[in-house]
Amino acid sequence: MKAAVVRDFTKPLEIEEREVPSPEPHQVLVRIECSGLCHTDIHAAHGDWPVKPSPPFVPGHEGVGIVEAAGDQVRHVKVGERVAIPWLADACGRCDFCVTGWETLCLSQHNSGYSVDGAYAQYALAHGDYVVPVPDGVDPMDAAPLSCAGVTTYKAVKLAGARPGTRVLISGIGGLGHLALQYARIFGAETVAVDITDEKLKLAEELGADHVIDARTQDVAHEVQKLGGADAAVSLAVSNASFRAAYDSLRRGGTLVLVALPAEGELTLPVFDTVLNGTKVIGSIVGTRQDLAEVFRLHQLGRTKVIRETRKLEDVNTCFDEVLGGKVSARLVFDMR
Ligand code: NAD
Ligand code: ZN
Ligand code: ZN
Q: Which of 238, 291, 320, 328 to mutate to test the pocket of ligand 1 (most atoms within 8 A of CB)?
């Protein structure tokens, strides 16, 4: 099988020929149909974060494909079923986080395309209990971005408290942001979209953003404060300056939800203002299997639209450059069929 492999944080990925792996008793072997390119894969390949993956490894945590073989302990999915392989490759299933709906915080978790090989390959192994079935009527090319960009922003927008009567700022209308904007609208919020490219600002308008702000030419916080301030802001842009702009856009009692993870991600906050304004600053990491099932259900009902372009896995390195150069309509998806 073909796989894109990170061998060195400073070098391009290599396309390698590998043996198709065999599943352990708790695993499934998935024949990958498509695999989304999340900005996280670029951080992984570059070793951007304090906790680094160990090369050689195969990135990819927006994998969608068909179960080709299953170990004898696998009960919940069957051979022939379409499943998604998300970031949460597995968790312990027993700790207080796992049993209270916070499996994404489990200290014993593994992560697809990071601590275990991911979906930038024609086949991938996954834990039978942690793959999420993709329902009929959801195009696998849409299911791929929904498996990280979708579930992550669905969760973040829920944590933001979006509901009718609230104003929610979405900072960065990329792979994650274009879905965040749609979830905020589904939850009934007034939406403010911020980006720095003409294409993304146009996309935000097409997706129905109530207000669109160009962070290149406009003072984001000033513009949002003129509207009355944001009840919540979801930070999805890979830029430290954007975090502070989002924080400064909040009204009293507002919530900043941090999601993007730049290489040297830092946000300095004034304690006095944060206290007096009763501001909440929270981090949000992906979403649970249940969140992803809800994301697929919303898509099946026609409530969301995935903006994507198709690419070949062989072009992975130019694809990384396209994303970093802001040249992508929203999400790139490798079609491996
Ligand atoms: P992306 O590159 O597709 O989107 C980023 C967007 O931000 C682009 O549209 C870009 O034009 C815009 N942008 C850049 N600078 C800006 C600025 N100053 N103000 C406003 N917009 C700006 O990336 P993505 O795949 O959507 O991922 C975004 C980030 O989220 C990455 O750091 C990724 O690692 C992280 N991420 C976090 C989680 C999580 O669970 N916390 C999950 C997935 C991805
Ligand atoms: Zn991701
Ligand atoms: Zn656990």
A: 238
